[in-house]
Design brief:
Number of helices: 11
Radius of gyration: 20 Å
Strand content: 15-25%
Oligomer: single chain
Helix content: 40-55%
Number of strands: 9
Structural class: alpha/beta
CATH superfamily of the largest domain: Spore Coat Polysaccharide Biosynthesis Protein SpsA, Chain A
CATH class of the largest domain: Alpha Beta
Order of helices and strands: EHEHHEHEEHEEHEHHEHHH
Largest sheet: 9 strands, mixed
Length: 306
């Protein structure tokens, strides 16, 4: 029997793009899907547009298993994800942001991957689009590679896009709630997966990834003052330390035999980051590298995409 897949849209102030996201959600060519549309108490017309879309397409969608949720209060991304996990029952969960568009074969490709590979999470590539749906090539230009536990600890991040991931339910069930001490889940949930059956890669686009001025990744390329860049850099360092602390907790919840060795590596990384934050010369030197990188991103991408 085909596994039940929970395909869900997380929306928040996506009134301009939600119809296209819903088109992608309901275009899936896989036939055992539980659909969830969950809105985090949008302040624009997103929820109105969702209800209007479902009413207009009610005949076409009448045989689909559709769940609706609108949060009474804005929960924020991580608590919203946790609520979605509780509301759904599929063994595989595929998130579809309210401003992106999934390809029709996204779910079937992911199910096939999990059937033929031992992994707890899989990431794909994506095609970048702008506000008018103009295409700009792949999100990841170079060959995508899987990430091991050592890779993630050494780098301090995963380096893959959370918008493209699909997750087996045990990633949530095994480790409990997502900690609120971290800024986002993009480097936390994959670390959980790495501790279980690992992270897989489908190195082809399975969705359109939209860049616009209010997208979650917009801080990467928005023009900011020197001080704002510095504040962001320090915030990133602090967030990485918090990730390391939470990864250590996850390791002790795992069944790995080399727990102490991994924790020792994490503590070395934490101490190194804390030292960097105390040493103004080192902090400023590394920040200049970060600042120049951000300026290059602005030069290459902003006018192109937005």
């Amino acid at each position: 029997m085909k596994p039940l897949v929970s395909c869900y849209i997380l929306s928040y102030n996506h009134e301009k793009y939600i119809d296209e996201a819903l088109d992608g959600l309901f275009s899936q060519d896989y036939d055992n899907i539980e659909y969830l549309i969950s809105d985090d108490n949008s302040t624009d017309n997103t929820w109105i547009n969702i209800k209007k879309y479902l009413n207009i397409n009610k005949n076409k969608l009448k045989n689909k298993n559709i769940l609706l949720n609108k949060n009474d209060n804005n929960l924020g991304l991580m608590k919203h994800i946790e609520k979605v996990v509780l509301l759904t029952s599929g063994s595989i969960l595929i998130g579809m942001p309210g401003d992106d568009i999934s390809f029709p074969n996204r779910t079937s490709c992911i199910v096939d991957f999990f059937k033929n590979n031992n992994a707890s999470m899989v990431f794909s590539n994506a095609t970048i689009i702008d506000t008018k749906r103009n295409e700009y090539g792949k999100l990841f230009i170079r060959e995508m590679k899987s990430k091991s536990i050592d890779n993630i600890i050494n780098n301090g991040f995963v380096g893959l896009s959370g918008a493209t991931k699909a997750t087996k339910r045990d990633v949530y069930d095994k480790f409990g709630k997502i900690p609120l001490s971290i800024e986002n889940e993009d480097d936390h949930l994959p670390f959980r997966a790495a501790l279980l059956d690992g992270i897989g890669i489908i190195d082809k686009p399975l969705l359109y990834y939209r860049l616009h001025e209010n997208s979650l990744s917009s801080w990467l390329w928005k023009k900011q003052s020197f001080r704002e860049y510095l504040d962001r850099y320090i915030k990133n360092l602090d967030n990485r330390i918090n990730h390391y602390i939470e990864w250590e907790k996850l390791i002790y919840k795992s069944n790995l035999s080399d727990q102490e060795e991994l924790v020792e590596k994490i503590n070395i990384k934490i101490n190194k980051l804390k030292k960097e934050m105390r040493d103004s010369n080192t902090l400023y030197f590394k920040f200049r590298i970060y600042f120049n990188m951000q300026i290059n991103i602005l030069k290459q991408y902003v006018k192109k995409y937005v």
